[in-house]
Amino acid sequence: MSQLDNLRGKALCVALLIGMLSLCSFDSTAQNAPPAPVGHFHHLHLNVTDPAANVEFYPSKFDCEKAKFAGRDAVWAQKSWLLFNKVSKPPAWEPVSSIWHMGWGAEDMRATYQKQLDSGTKFFEPLTDISDLARFPNFYYAYVEGPDHALIELNTAPHHHFGHLHLFSEDPVAAGEWYMKYLGIKRRSTTPPSREPRFYREWQVGPSASFMVDNVNVIIFPVQFTQKFYAKYWKPGQKTLAPTKGRVIDHVAFSFDNLAEVVERLKKDGVKIVEGISIDKTTKLKHAFVEGPDKILIELVEGQARKE
After folding, report:
1. What pLDDT digit, counting tens, does each position of 222-257 carry?
2. pLDDT tens digits for 32-88?
3. Largest CA distance in the chain
4. Which of 37, 112, 249, 266 is most buried, by CB atoms within 10 Å?
5. Sequential DSSP letters for 158-201
6. According to DSSP H, which parts of 151-307 are helical?
7. The whole model's pTM is what?
């Protein structure tokens, strides 16, 4: 069996400082309730000072392509979108909100990293070997610094596609249960998730959560990690994660076949509805906005993402 085959068997996606994150499972708190509508990964929406530059940047660095979304320039990444909203001044980007970074895979990280360097890519974190944590030789990650300081991870993986979204939470287990309940995510085993803290060297990486939404692995780390690893970015007196709205990665969007059904379910459960169902004048999407765990802004869209 090749190393790549071994890698496919060990992990779906690896994020900074956890290597192969053991996939967590969640106990449903509503075993007898009707199954939740199944959600799909639709898009990430970024606030940027120069949308055209972003549309050029991502396809030049990662496996994705320029495309039109509702007649506007955007980026299509395998099964979902990157959309860009123009803002007048650089948005906040520091890793102190629930959205940490997005990520692409790389079959050969050393070669990919060198190719990126040769093309002038700026790195927020250089090539780093975490083979000891992954328990797999030649296991690396690096962080690209995108336009407006958006963080994009490249990590060893059996593919080179858009592959993950990494989040922070004050309670990763509860956050994972929230996404499972409202996105219809299937739990991966019957073993209850552990709430015991876990550490990699001096950094806390657990409890944690990990689940797939289509081809995107959503990973949730404890807030304690960013409070220590990125301590210099936390303002004096700041105790909790900042809202994502208005930051460089403003929100994540999930799609459903029946938006009204999903929104009604959320309302009944007391989830904060930021904006009710409407038709966006620009994109023509039928959508709504809710506040998810840890003040993450979530857009709910009717209809799966499709390349036009």
Report:
1. 999 999 999 999 999 999 999 999 999 999 999 999
2. 567 889 999 999 999 999 999 999 999 999 999 999 999 999 999 999 999 999 999
3. 56
4. 249
5. S--SEEEEEEEESSHHHHHHHHHHHH-PPPS-SSPPP-S-EEET
6. 172-183, 223-229, 259-268
7. 0.90
Our CA dihedral for 294, 299, 305, 308, rounded to 10 degrees, sits at -130
- Return the pLDDT at 24: 37
Q: For residue 295, what is the DSSP state?
A: G
24 burial (CB, 10 Å; 0-12 / 13-18 / 19+) is buried
Cα distance between residue 46 and residue 84, in whole Å: 5
Q: Computed from CA positions of residues 210, 211, 217, 223, in that sequence, does the dihedral angle turn out positive or negative? A: negative
Reported as type and span, the H/E element at residue 21 is none
* pLDDT at residue 262, rounded to an integer: 97
Question: Quick one: which of 272, 227, 56, 77 has its CA closest to 146?
Answer: 56
How far is 71 from 225, CA to CA, in rounded Å? Answer: 40
Cβ pair 15, 104 in contact under 8 A = no
